[in-house]
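Protocol step 4 of 5: obtain the predicted structure for the target chain.
Materials: sequence only (see below). No template structures provided, no constraints applied. The aim of this step is simply to have a reference model before the mutagenesis design in step 5. Sequence pasted as it appears in the construct record:
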Amino acid sequence: MFERLHRCLCETGSFVTGMHDTGRSRSLRTPQFVEDILQGVGERPDISTQEVSRAVHVPHSIVWRVLRDEGLHPYHVQKVLALIPADYVPRVEFARWFLQQLETQPDFSAHVLFTDESTFIRISNTQQPSCLLLSSFCNFATLAINKII
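Step 4 output (structure tokens):
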């Protein structure tokens, strides 16, 4: 027993032998493989890594690694109200009115409720589906909407 271990250590530098081709095989990362993943995400930025992994037949952890290496990260969608040119004049008028109120009543801003401090929901549609986008350009993605939902 010790002779075999000594011989193995002298020949290979390790006690472990015959471990070639064991375990799960590694998937090869070819340019076509990476392109298939990126094409799936490019067509649908809201696609999940699970869906991409099923489509290209690789583990989703590999899909995550490819996306991360390409600089793509998941972001939650943030809905914002879209501003149009017609909004400029009312906003300027409000700003001027607000400044006038501050001149006459210095603590006026403490009595104002801004919409980013409150939540407005429509009772009939309170369920919003969770949505992730894969993007490389900012730390969050925004969707402009023209009216309050």
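Step 4 remarks: Residues 87-146 form one domain. Residues 88-104 form the longest helix (17 residues).
Proceed to step 5.
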